Amino acid sequence: MLTPEQKKQFNEIFDHLSKSLNISKERYDQAVASYQFVGDWLARPESALAPYKPEILPQGSFIFGTMIEPVDECDDLDIDLVCRLTGKNDSWTQYHLKKIVGDRLKDHGTFKRMLDKEGRRCWTLLHRDQARFHMDILPAIINEEYFVILEKAMSANRQQDFETAAIRITDKLTHNYSSSTNPDEWLKSNPFGLAAWFKLRASLALQKAMSLNEAIQPVPDNETNKLPLQCVVQILKRHRDILFKGDEQKPISIIITVLSARAYKGETDVLDALISIVNTMENFIEERYDRASGKNVKWISNPVNPEENFADKWPAEPAKQEKFFKWLECVKKDVNQVITQKGLHNIQTAMAKSFGERTVNNVFSKIGENAKAQRDGGVMKMAASTGVLGSSGRAHVGYHNNFGK
Q1: Which of 6, 132, 168, 352 could potentially form a cystine with 357 if both were Cys, beta carbons 3.0 to 4.6 Å apart?
Q2: Per-residue DSSP letters for 102-166?
Q3: In sequence order, what are the beta bridge partners of 84?
Q4: Nearest to residue 299, comparing CAs of 268, 289, 291, 371?
Q5: Whole-number percent of the chain with pLDDT over 90
Q6: Quick one: how far is CA 81 from the chain centroid?
Q7: Rounded to an integer, what distance in angstroms lies between the CA atom of residue 337 and that of residue 347?
Q8: Mean pLDDT over all residues of the chain?
């Protein structure tokens, strides 16, 4: 059982860990400038897309506020985007829409060189400059009434109304990819409704409602002071990345994000939220009967599209399910191991194994710098039971660079 002082200090450590995982302002600004430039190019008057008011909007971790720097500094950031059109030419199928977006990108010499091979749903632009990121651009359609319906949803501000933010997307594996001209028959997705739902969950810490208008922005805030739920998702994603070291079968981010948000109870600090989430997120995995296989399957439903199962690949690829539960067992054990350590050096060593040595060393260096500044101000003491630095009292302690390293 942690004392209030211990809780305060471990919360400071995990809060600094989350901050250290944020992408740099330089990378963030480069990514935003890049996708805005793509959007401008697609919408120029000479573009075949121009009559349909194309917009490039972020989705996924970029809009959730949970993107993290890669473990390896040489790896790419993965930025998920939607190319959202209002209406379309009556003769366009999914195939036509996807091709026209791709053709317009190829009309720009730089984009043509950056284009990767066509994906199942997206076009991918590869940035190979110092920023190193790639942008997955998903063509999508909304109807003329979309914004009227969305405005009503925003004023009602209820979770079920987030379903009105659904869009229709292109997908090469659908049976009507090259035949249906009716978007209502295309695959449905709801990245913006999901973002609004996630931010509504995160805002429980503020005791305020989060509207769709606040949650869906062409340029989301690059918050440095994130809400506890956002911090926990970042921390859990980094633990996964360290554990699996690039394994393609590792738990996917959307499953970690949605289960964390479901398990979140509005805790106002990162430590309490982290402990609660890792110990209860499994409770939000359902079992449902699958008629196709005649078996019960694990089901992690999309909160704004209950028919969608984020664990739909688990039955065909059982390694994905096995590795999710392996990760969950490990993260519970590792978090518990960290918070039961005595002494800063032991805490740092335990965290480095689970969250990466370089990142954790940076965290403790930062905390050490803060401790030195407070010590120089004469307001530091050492919590005797843990060796964790505190800020109440005026006992004088020496400065340990990197907390003992």
Answers
A1: 352
A2: HHHHHTSHHHHHHB-S--SS-EEEEE-SSS-EEEEEEEEEE-TTHHHHHHHHHHH--GGGGGGG-
A3: 55, 140
A4: 289
A5: 66
A6: 13
A7: 9
A8: 86
